[in-house]
Design goal:
18% strand; two-stranded antiparallel sheet; four-stranded antiparallel beta sheet; alpha+beta; single chain; 7 helices
Length: 249
């Protein structure tokens, strides 16, 4: 419909407007990795990498260890609950390895912009009411690369953005399971096929260190999708990505 078309055009326009920042990010990553790391083009020799030293120093300073929470209550009746909640929350932070996510967040901030996505991750299916099973999800924090991120650049501040979103990949098995769970529209899912040529074009920062796109014949190639938060609806919707280079959905 027209609203979807307007959203699609706005996302594409905003993503293209962010291209200078993605270019800056790639240049900063090149400076950080130095001339002898990765499979990218040859770079000029650099014998003392000041960028790398500065980034590592601040990562140690700001994210050297896992954060812990301390929960208490002024009400005696809630003291025991607060203590148990503190233990469980600290166990969750350990389980999701939050310190690793925070360190990558700090690293991305030095490179240009750090983005962290809070969401529910798979927690495994549990039995509910006998023969019914479900995945209740588990709180999780994930890093979002700048190459995969878009937001409404026409907004004067991030709180006023009409949309924000990120691209990521899921396997065909995940897609089929999502259809069964009612997460994805079956009619749309049936039209999707893996794209083996989605990466490896040399324009992503993570390709500079021999990561994404290193293997064009990878096993079980994924499907490209995007989560888009729409402010006026207060919802996150998932769309198939037709073109990663322009964030076309």
């Amino acid at each position: 419909d027209s609203s979807y078309g307007s959203l699609r055009d706005a996302i594409k326009s905003s993503y293209m407007a962010l291209d200078p920042f993605r270019s800056l990010n790639r240049k900063m990553v090149e400076s950080y990795v130095g001339p002898t790391y990765g499979s990218a083009q040859k770079r000029l020799p650099k014998y003392l990498n000041k960028v790398r030293q500065a980034v590592i120093a601040h990562m140690v300073l700001l994210g050297g260890s896992r954060p812990h929470v301390n929960i208490s209550s002024d009400y005696l009746a809630l003291t025991a609950f607060a203590h148990h909640f503190q233990i469980n929350l600290n166990n969750l932070l350990k389980e999701i390895v939050i310190e690793k996510t925070l360190r990558r967040w700090i690293f991305d901030s030095f490179m240009c912009m750090g983005v962290c996505k809070l969401h529910l991750a798979d927690s495994g299916y549990v039995a509910n009411e006998g023969d019914l099973s479900m995945d209740p999800g588990s709180p999780f924090a994930s890093n979002v690369l700048l190459d995969d991120y878009v937001y409404d650049v026409t907004a004067s501040k991030i709180e006023a953005a009409r949309f924000q979103g990120d691209m990521y990949q899921i396997t065909m098995d995940d897609l089929k399971q999502g259809v069964k769970d009612g997460m994805y529209d079956k009619k749309v899912a049936d039209t999707l096929t893996p794209d083996r040529s989605r990466l490896g074009q040399g324009h992503r920062a993570d390709e500079l260190i021999g990561g994404a796109g290193a293997n064009q014949t990878e096993y079980d190639p994924p499907i490209d999708v995007a989560d888009i938060w729409i402010a006026k609806e207060g919802q996150v919707k998932t769309f198939p990505v037709l073109d990663r280079s322009t964030f076309e959905i």
